[in-house]
Amino acid sequence: MSETDDLPRDSTGAPRYSRRLSDKILIAFHQACDQADFDIAEQLLHILEQMLQRRPTTTDTNRRKSMETLVAAHERLWYLRHPAEGHA
Fold it and tell me: What is the extent of the structural domain holding 44?
């Protein structure tokens, strides 16, 4: 059984992906942080930023949520890189 066997299919039978690319990149960012690979985490954040700048979302609510998620990710990376600073 392959990894794509459980994915929903479109009308042509091709797998449809259930997560947005930006969600997958954010998951990869958190995995990089968990593994203390901060340089990769930072590069993934830059990719997310580029995606937000390039592709407008359909509503202001989605854009605000995306921006809040991006800010939270930057904060996580900063705290991981500066553990002595603490969470004041």
Answer: 21-85
Whether 15 maps to a domain, the answer reads: no
74: closest CA among 34, 35, 42, 36? 42
Whether the model clears a pTM of 0.85, i.e. scores above it, the answer is no
CB–CB of 45/35 below 8 Å?
Answer: no
**Structure token digits, residue 68:** 């809040």
Total domains present in the chain: 1
Q: Give me the torsion for CA of 6, 7, 10, 14, rounded to 10°.
A: -90
- Residue 80 pLDDT > 90: yes
CA distance 12 to 61: 33
Tokens 């800010």, located at residue: 71
